[in-house]
Write a structure and sequence with these properties.
The protein is of the alpha/beta class and 290 residues long. The protein has 11 helices and 7 strands. 38% of the residues are buried.
Length: 290
């Protein structure tokens, strides 16, 4: 496949310290597009001087919007394969051939560069967060992969018709779920990643993780509403049982009941029933929509 058929999209926000080296290393494997998402530093100037084509947002819109801008450009220019990787230097562009290879062989429509499969010293808190998010994605998609990796390759056919609704970094999971819905095949290959890069945290890791988890729960609710609402219903019923036991325990010794706990047990029982009904209803609607 000719060099011109590969476009490497690098979404960037205030990455003047690393964007030059990322662009220079990536150029060996295809054309490079940097989407500057409203940077206030020299990201655009440095990327352009290193040979990248640059599209710039006047204000910061988030990673999802940056990728959508890149995908539209790729489809307009009729590239066969699109590769995405981060601008902060975490991803090694020398792994681009490995990420593209399964698509060239016809074995996949999307390939994800997996940090968990590679020989990477992932910080413990990141490893724990990735495990939670990957398990959540597995529930939503039945696919156990490094769902949050931004290093991936895709056929242009996969990009056609994908409407990204998430804002920010939840786009990684949304792309997987929507690709699977349309019957595309996803595989992963091991890559190496660095965690000693400048600006490695643009947001507080805990807040970032909670935002991703919140959006992931929304995707689970969309894909498997009975599982999500059924689990919440069971939790509510469990609370009702504990409060009911607490309320009735003194009855057998003194003949009286704790009224507050009894009322709480009733409330949680009603909530549990409502959640279960909602789960069954949304499950039927989701199947009808699909």
């Amino acid at each position: 496949m000719p060099r011109e058929s590969v476009l490497i999209i690098i979404p960037a926000y205030n990455e003047e310290l690393t964007i030059g080296s990322v662009v220079a290393l990536s150029k060996r494997y295809g054309d490079v597009l940097v989407v500057d998402d409203g940077s206030q530093d020299r990201t655009t100037k440095i990327a352009s001087s290193c040979g990248a084509h640059v599209l710039r947002h006047e204000k910061n819109k988030g990673k999802s919007a940056a990728l959508e801008t890149g995908f539209r450009y790729a489809l307009e220019k009729n590239y066969d394969i699109v590769v995405t990787l981060d601008a902060d230097g975490q991803h090694d562009p020398d792994f681009i051939p490995s990420v593209i290879e399964p698509i060239l062989r016809g074995d996949a429509d999307m390939v994800i560069g997996s940090r968990t499969r590679g020989k990477n010293r992932i910080p413990l808190y990141r490893r724990f967060g990735l495990w939670i998010l990957n398990k959540g994605t597995q529930i939503a998609s039945n696919l156990n992969i490094d769902s949050q990796s931004g290093f991936r390759a895709m056929r242009k056919e996969l990009l056609e018709g994908i409407d990204l609704e998430c804002e920010g970094y939840c786009v990684e999971t949304e792309m997987i779920v929507k690709a699977l819905e349309r019957g595309f095949k996803i595989v992963e290959v091991p890559i190496e990643a660095r965690y000693d890069v400048p600006h490695k945290h643009k947001r507080h890791p805990l807040l970032h993780g909670l935002e991703l988890l919140d959006n992931l729960l929304g995707l689970i609710g969309y894909r498997r509403p009975l599982l999500l609402f059924g689990s919440l219903s069971l939790i509510s019923f469990a609370c009702a049982v504990m409060l009911g036991y607490w309320a009735l325990e003194p009855y057998y010794s003194g003949g009286h009941v704790y009224l507050t706990q009894a009322i709480g047990a009733g409330i949680f029982t009603v909530i549990g029933i409502q959640l279960l009904i909602a789960g069954f209803t949304l499950n039927v609607l989701a199947k009808m929509v699909r």
